[in-house]
Amino acid sequence: MSEQEPQKGPEPSGVDLARVALRAAKDAARARGDAAQQKKQARRGGGLRSGARADGRDPMALGSAINRLITERGWEAPAAVGGVMGRWPQIVGEDVAKHCEPEKYDEDERVLIVRCDSTAWATNLRLLAPTLVARLNEDLGHGTVHLIKVLGPSAPARRYGPLRAPGSTGPGDTYR
Fold first, then answer.
1. Strands (DSSP E) along the chain, which ranges?
2. For 112-164, what is each residue's pLDDT tens digit?
3. Which of 43, 103, 127, 133 would you label with 82, given CA atoms 20 to 30 Å apart?
4. Contact 144, 137 (CB under 8 A)
5. Cα dihedral 12→16→18→21 (10° resolution)
6. In this structure, how many other beta carbons lie within 10 angstroms of the beta carbon of residue 102?
7. Whole-model pTM?
């Protein structure tokens, strides 16, 4: 051998040559298969299709899809408070739930608005409000509800007629 030629190790034997040839054949077949698959998909007019392995295009369970949507949109607190509205009787007790029901949650001010069917229950709920706020924040996470605003019963529409005194407020709940 001359000094200019680099020295190589021993020549590959038959088994090594067979492995190299097999690897090259597999790579070529894989490349042909990918090209054929892309042509087939182009003819179908579709993109890549989901196969046997899970990926982002697979259908997902409804619960997972809703949870992902809630997280992406930042609706965690309103959704949690909505869940509280569904579990209101378990949170406040059956007696209170019969007479007081949550109406709305103001996310900006973190206020839960509750309407009661009488002034007595509204007063009772006002006394229970700090305890309920603590219980709700324990369930939902600290600071989710700052205040419970208690509303009394809505008064019936006032009727004006021939038997009414001018300026009279008429009978009504003493709540207002």
1. 100-106, 111-116, 147-151
2. 899 998 888 899 999 988 998 888 888 777 778 889 999 888 766 666 666 66
3. 127
4. yes
5. -80
6. 19
7. 0.50
Token reading at 134: 């603590």
**How deeply is 166 buried, as exposed, middle or buried, from its count of CB atoms within 10 A (0-12, 13-18, 19+)?**
exposed
Between CA 76 and CA 82, with CA 60 as vertex, the angle to 5 degrees is 25
Q: Which amino acid appears at position 17 of this protein? A: L
- Of residues 151, 158, 72, 139, the one with CA closest to residue 111: 151
Record the tokens describing residue 32, joined without a space: 């042909």
Q: What is the pLDDT of residues 38-64, one digit of tens each?
A: 666 655 555 555 567 777 777 778 888
Which residues, at least 6 apart from 110, have a Cβ–Cβ distance to it below 8 Å?
77, 143, 144, 145, 146, 147
Are 84 and 102 in contact, with CB atoms under 8 Å apart?
Answer: yes
Return d(Cα 164, Cα 162) in angstroms, integer: 6
Helix, strand, coil in percent for the chain, rounding step 5? 50, 10, 40
